[in-house]
Design brief:
This protein is mainly beta and 165 residues long. The protein is built from one helix and 14 strands, in the order αββββββββββββββ. Strand 7 and strand 8 form a beta hairpin. The longest helix is centred in the N-terminal third of the chain and has 14 residues. The N and C termini lie far apart (141 Å).
Length: 165
Amino acid sequence: MNKTNPTLALFALLAAACSSQPPAATQGSSGATACTEEAKVCPDGSTVSRQGPNCEFAPCPDAGGPTACTDEAKVCPDGSSVSRQGPNCEFAPCPDAGGPTACTQEAKVCPDGSSVSRQGPDCQFAPCPDAGGPTACTQDAKVCPDGSTVSRQGPDCQFAPCPGE
C-alpha cells in the first residue's frame, strides 16, 4: 500500500499555489474565453491589452513607422515659422539658424519721454508710441534775463526764445 505523507503533500500544494502566475484567460460557462484585464506599456508610452483566443497582448504600435507630430509652429527670428518633424518631433531648424539674435541693450528716448529698445531679427529700435501725433512736452519753465518765463514748444520740446533774444 502506498502511503502519502500529508505534510509533504500540503507543502507541494502550497509551493505550487505560491509560484504559479494567475492564468491570462478563464473559460466561462458558455465556453467563451475571457482575458484578464491587464495592460502592457509599450516603448512609445501607449498601452495594449490582452486579446484573442490565447489572450496574448496585442502588438505595440510600430516604433519604426511614421510618427504623427503635434500641429505646433515655432516662429523664427526672421519671422518665418517651422513645424515639428522627424521621429522625435523636434522643430525643424530655422532658416539661417545661427541661434537666436541677441540685440544690444540700448534704449532710444522718444519725444514723449518714454524709451524703446531694439527688437526683432534686425535689432531695429521699436517705433516710439504715437510717433506721428502731437508731442506733449514737460511743463517746466525757463526764467529769462528780464524775469519773464518761457515754456517748451515744438516737436523737439525746446524752450521758446526769451523776449529780446
